[in-house]
Amino acid sequence: MAVHNVHERLLPTDESKLGALIDTLASGDHDQLWPGHDWSPMEFDRPLSPGATGGHWPVGYTVTGYIPGRWIRFEFTRPRGFHGFHELAVLPAGPGHARIHHTLTMTTKGLARLTWPLAFRPMHDACMEDAFDRAEHACTGTVARPARWSPYVRLLHTLAAHATRKRSANQRPESPATRPR
C-alpha cells in the first residue's frame, strides 16, 4: 500500500528561528521540537548528520539527508514492512512567516499494511501535531489551538506505553539509540 502523509503549520516567525528547531532534534533536554515528554525520546548514535541511526521506539531510521536549519530526511529501518522516508522542512511563507512541513512517503508490506492505518497513522498524526505545538510555542510563546488526542489515540498510547514497559523489563540494556522507553 502506498502512503503519503503530510503535516504542516504556518507560523508567524522567520525561517531561521523555525529552522533552528530542527537542529535541536535528539539533543535530549535541549530538544525544542520533539515531544519527548509524551512520546518515546528521539535518539541517535551520533549528532544529526547523514548516516546517524536511531529513532524513537518502535520506529527506527537513518538520517539520509540534512541541511542544518532547513531540512532533514530519515529513511525507515523499522518496523518491518515500512519502506520509505519521512522528512521535516522549513519553507518560506512571506514576510515574517514560515511553514514547518513534514512529509512521510512509504509503501507498506505484510503486517504493516494493517498496523499503519490502525495504529501507526493515528499515533504518528498525534505526535506530529504535538511536535508542531512545540514549534509554535518555541517561536511565539503560545499555541493558538493546541492539538488534542482522540480517545482512540489515548487508548493506543496507553497500550504502547504498557508494551514498552513490559519489553524494557524483559530485555538486557541496549544502546541509547535503540533502547525502548
TrEMBL record:
Source taxon at top rank: Bacteria
SUPFAM superfamilies: Bet v1-like (SSF55961)
Protein name: SRPBCC family protein
Organism ancestry: Bacteria, Bacillati, Actinomycetota, Actinomycetes, Kitasatosporales
